[in-house]
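Case study 2.
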Amino acid sequence: MTPRLKGVLIALAGTTAWATTGIFISYLLTRYNLAPLTLAFWRDLAVAATLIAILAVFQPQALRLTRRDVPFFLAYGFVALALFNGLWTYSVKFNGAAVATVLAYSSPAFTVLLAGPLLKEPFTRRKLAAVILGLAGCVLVAKAYRPEVWQVNLAGILVGLGTGLVFAIYSLAGRWSSSRFTNSWTVTAYGFLFAALALGLTQTPQTLFTLGRAWDGWLILAALAVGPSLLGFGLYTLSLRYLPASAASLIAVLEPALTAVMAIFLLGEILIGWQWAGAGLIVFAAVLAQFEPAPS
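Prediction:
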């Protein structure tokens, strides 16, 4: 198995895990009236705690940090990952789920544009075509082709595009970290720990324990953290050891299509013809990007 194929398979596995997070989050927000930033805080904290505990038992050397590592994690976790969670929450609030999804998946475009000057990854017509096709597919899957869906204000659009930009920065930082840290799970563990510290500053004792004694809610929250969140972010970060950031981000565009298909079986939702067409475009875009010649 070539390193590129290995990276593609790892990124696909991570994206598939990611695709279930929307279902978990939607259920928690509607069933338990949990504030979005509170949910994000507990999810990030649970991911960090779980992964740190596992590494402490099986790879304790992976938890060693030096003083010069702290600035990276302040930027990667405390700023980028926490900011992504916050912006995503407010984008959904301002724009609605459909437009927020489309704007968030502007991230491959930002990644492709920034990867050249920052990581010396080549900018090619094939990547540009994959970005355009992937974004068009997201529009169709999210049904954002309806004019009324886009009746939002300028602030909402800017917040949504900010979500895509911050995730692009997160991807590029993850790619850069692969040359500095020998274990990608170290990056994931401390990234989420620093993100939880940042999100903790947004909480009060009242918001922190909104779930109260709803133990089933706590169990679902724990399942969200140690399942799709840990696997999704962890495997995506791992894939960046083998793939250019631009290629990995284009695979991640598969998430809305996978979520839509899963919702058919788990939530009884129905996809119309244009949504199936959009899912096909997204898959084609992800495949197209992988035929890009590997950098020498």
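Residues 3-290 form one domain.
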